[in-house]
Write a structure and sequence with these properties.
Chain A: GO terms for molecular function: ATP binding. The structure holds two protein chains of two kinds. Chain A is α/β, with parallel strands linked by helices. Helices cover 36% and strands 24% of the residues of chain A. In chain B, helix 4 packs antiparallel against helix 5 (98-126), helix 4 (74-91) packs parallel to helix 6 (130-149) and helix 5 runs antiparallel to helix 11 (216-242).
């Protein structure tokens, strides 16, 4: 596909793009070229300017300097509508569809065929079915969108984008909540569209996926262009180094930071004991012990019940069977407050919906958990708040290091760090982290992994959930394997345990 | 200068000043305050006194709206509170005694608080949407007030009770002092404790707040209870002003004025960040507007239209989208000379 570079003219050519927000230069002289029939990866850490660049191309932000050529014609977009008219379609990270409408209605929304001024519903369904078929998808257009998995919704969103016969398709983190099979399905659709001559701009934090699907890539760092590379000839380590702008030391450090050989004294009483804990329609009854100083990993596919286990342990959902004991004393976890007061902190996988309080400042977000525990009457003294905030902003390297910044203005990785700070400030004895590293960049990921290892080393009990098995293996002392909403196996981690073993357990359901 | 225009309260305050200036142009002695019988006297004092009931209602409304709620029942609570206090005084053997009046006030406030607690119960425990939950009391409340007054407009003579709405203390209207006192109390309550932050947190992201351990239910319940209590106090002032309990018209449409004042003051109906001083400015704008209409002699027929025009102007100036457009224009204008230079 790289041969197209020489033969054809780029369908999109952005040159010298600069965008400034009050006090911040978000983009500084960035170039991007997209050719017809290629998958182009846009790479960079959180806050590197990827989203801003996409928003410049889609007309969400106006540009302060530079030029955008689409099909050789200069455009100055002043709204998403104009960009769409120019043939640029976007599918954002969070699926922007209406769950309560049917698949057909979602695909054709705004482009419904009409007859005598009224919408021709039959033709609408027929058209939608045709679009789905051209992408090789077998979905009933009359079914309700909400009945389908996130992955299928994502594909429906792409179908919707292609209704307007887009020449350029922008996919912003489409794979962050998909499992391996679903990613393969998405890639099949992407390849099909690429072969039809569509230029696809693909943003992802998963380096393996970028290598699998992309032809070329553009790397950004701190709002500046690092370079444009052909994927086939670029080394992975080199790529990561260019993205984070420093050597791989941070990442390599990590391999030694968790000493898996540490013997946890499992003879003693566990910090938390769950016996027969379960909830109908959520997760089948399971037993789980978590000892102080130990990281227990939960491995399993998306929807295997790993999140549900975490929610029961944190009191976010109420169990309808089983008991929980903390330090060998009965401790029912009826709601998050009850769990928090017992020293359990829970960071949800859904950062945006269940973690971030966007319009409050970094400072307020950090002390929120601690203050909630004290009740509204006993306000934390200002000096103590400052101490706590300064401590965690420095310790977790939160950027910008401005406690008065609104949390919604921070990048995903930094928001995650603020949420971690919120929980650490409550001085928990058990920390439950559900996908703490999802959707954040390599550098922040390494920092968070390192922190988890350190906390366990200091005696904290940790339950760690991640879709990436390597990460679970690297950090955990013990791994509970989940499958089909039930705990199917539990293994002690060690030198001899690898991804293959865990995958085998997930696949076999622990029967061997 | 830019700092000042960016301040959230810039446009509301500008609108208020513009209104005052317009009035002064029309009647040069508008802002003059004289001393009469040891009381301050003049249009500004009228505004401050007339603003008191709306201020009280709007304070409660601000907190309710900050938690993503709305309280439509405030007008009904005003009517009930007024009807209760006046009926109690009218039927008591000694309407003029201070103890009777104090008891009447206590009963009215107690019942108002209970009504607020009822609203809070429906919203936070039963889980009914606030607009529907308070609609119940908005409709039923007038009926309750009618039952209390037995369908009559009860007129009462009681000097101590009259003081609340028409009296002066230290030269200032008692009603203003009461509203001002409550304003300070709420300001202290929300900003000196953590209540303000927790209210905002619940309003911005209820799910995240719950997981962070915030007692969202208690907080929502509390703000509705406060809204009921403050509406009851407003009802007392309004009743004391006219010394007649009118179940049908007391506090009619005050919920709309209160919501308007909150919005003009910059608190979003989507909940979250709230501004008490913004609400104060909003209340003053609305009260001044009402007085302006009388002073300028605008026909009562077009009064609502005139009010609407001012409100449109203020809300437009505050709209983030409009501001963004202006800011973008300014940025482009600033950027252009650079391009030429390059």
């Amino acid at each position: 596909m790289t041969s197209s570079e020489t033969a054809e003219r780029p369908v999109v050519e952005m040159t010298g793009i600069s965008i400034e927000f009050p006090g911040v230069k978000a983009l500084d002289q960035v170039d991007l070229r997209l050719f017809p029939g290629e998958v182009h990866a846009l790479m960079g850490e959180n806050g590197a300017g990827k989203s801003t660049l996409i928003k410049a191309l889609t007309g969400v932000y106006g540009i302060d300097a530079g030029e955008i050529l689409v099909d050789g014609r200069s455009h100055r977009f002043s709204g998403p509508g104009e960009s769409q008219d120019a043939g640029i379609a976007t599918v954002y990270q969070e699926v922007n569809l209406c769950e309560n409408l049917t698949v057909a209605e979602n695909i054709m929304l705004g482009n419904e065929p009409r007859r005598l001024g009224a919408i021709d519903w039959r033709a609408t369904r027929r058209e939608a079915a045709r679009h789905l078929a051209t992408m090789g998808l077998d979905i009933d257009p009359a079914s309700s969108l909400g009945a389908h998995s996130i992955a299928l919704q994502q594909l429906v969103a792409i179908s919707r984008a292609m209704v307007v016969e887009a020449k350029v398709l922008i996919l912003d983190e489409p794979t962050s909540s998909l499992d391996a099979g679903e990613v393969a399905q998405l890639f099949a659709v992407m390849r099909r569209l690429r072969d039809e001559g569509v230029a696809i701009l693909f943003v992802s934090h998963f380096i393996e996926q970028v290598y699998e699907i992309s032809d070329r890539m553009t790397v950004l760092r701190n709002g500046r262009l690092v370079g444009e590379y052909a994927t086939a000839t670029t080394d992975r380590v080199e790529l990561v180094s260019t993205m984070i702008g420093r050597s791989m030391e941070v990442l390599e450090d990590l391999h030694v930071s968790t000493d898996r050989t540490v013997e946890i004294e499992r003879g003693s009483t566990p910090y938390l004991q769950a016996v027969g804990l379960g909830r109908k329609g959520s997760v089948q009854p399971f037993d789980l012990d978590v000892y102080s100083g130990e990281v227990v990993g939960l491995a399993g596919l998306l929807g295997s019940g790993r999140t549900e286990v975490a929610r029961l342990l944190a009191g976010a959902d109420r169990a309808d069977s089983g008991t929980t004991r903390i330090k060998d004393a009965p401790a029912p976890l009826r709601n998050p407050r009850a769990a928090i007061s017992r020293g359990i902190a829970f960071s949800s996988e859904d950062r945006k919906a269940e973690g971030v309080v966007g319009d409050l400042t970094v400072r307020e977000n950090i002390v929120l958990g601690l203050q909630a525990g004290r009740g509204w009457m006993r306000r934390l003294p200002g000096r103590q708040v400052d101490e706590i905030v300064d401590k965690y902003v420095a310790a977790l390297n939160i950027r910008p290091a401005d406690p008065d910044a609104l949390l919604r203005n921070l990048s995903g990785g930094n928001q995650q760090k603020v949420l971690l700070a919120r929980w650490l400030a409550t001085a928990p004895e058990l920390l439950i982290l559900d996908e703490p590293t999802r959707g954040i960049d390599v550098g922040a990921k390494a920092e968070i992994q390192k922190l988890v290892a350190e906390l366990a080393g200091e005696g904290m009990a940790v339950v760690f959930i991640s879709a990436e098995l390597e990460e679970v293996l690297r950090l955990s002392h013990r791994i509970a394997v989940m499958r089909d909403r039930a705990k199917v196996a539990e293994i002690v981690n060690g030198e001899d345990v690898g991804v293959d073993e865990v995958v085998g357990l997930i696949a076999s359901g622990g029967d061997h | 200068m830019r700092e000042i225009t960016r301040h959230a309260l810039f446009w509301p305050v500008a609108a208020l000043i513009a209104l005052l200036v317009a009035n002064t142009v029309y009647r040069p002695d508008f802002l003059a305050v004289t001393v009469l019988d040891g009381h301050l006297f003049g249009a500004p004092i009228d505004i401050l006194r007339n603003a008191a009931p709306l201020m009280l209602v709007a304070l409660g409304m601000t907190l309710v709206i900050a938690t993503r709620g709305i309280d439509l029942s405030v007008g009904a609570v005003v009517a009930i509170s007024g009807a209760l206090s006046l009926s109690f005084i009218a039927t008591s053997p000694d309407p003029g005694s201070v103890s009777t009046v104090l008891l009447a006030i206590a009963i009215a406030l107690g019942v108002s608080l209970v009504l607020g607690v009822w609203n809070g119960f429906l919203v936070s425990v039963v889980g009914i949407q606030p607009i529907i939950a308070t609609l119940i009391l908005m409709t039923a409340g007038r009926g309750i007030a009618m039952l209390i007054t037995e369908g009559q407009i009860t007129t009462v003579t009681s000097a101590p009770f009259k003081t609340l709405g028409s009296g002066f203390w230290l030269g200032l209207p008692v009603a203003t002092l009461v509203a001002g006192g409550v304003f300070l109390l709420v300001a202290l309550l929300t900003r000196r404790t953590a209540l303000g932050m927790l209210v905002e947190s619940v309003g911005i992201n209820p799910a995240a707040s719950r997981l962070a351990g915030v007692k969202a239910r208690t907080i929502v319940w509390t703000v509705f209870a406060l809204s009921g209590l403050f509406s009851g106090l407003a009802g007392l002032i309004l009743a004391s002003n006219v010394m007649a309990a009118d179940a049908n018209n007391a506090g009619l449409f005050i919920e709309l004025d209160a919501i308007l004042a909150v919005v003009i003051g910059g608190t979003s109906l989507q909940g979250g960040k709230f501004s008490l001083s913004g609400t104060l400015v909003g209340v003053l704008i609305i009260t001044t507007l009402t007085l302006t209409v009388t002073i300028v002699g605008i026909s009562p027929l077009v009064t609502p239209l005139f009010k609407a025009l001012v409100v449109i102007a203020v809300t437009l100036l505050q709209s983030p989208r409009i501001r963004e457009t202006f800011a973008a224009r300014a940025r482009q204008r600033a950027a252009r000379p650079e391009e030429v230079a390059a």
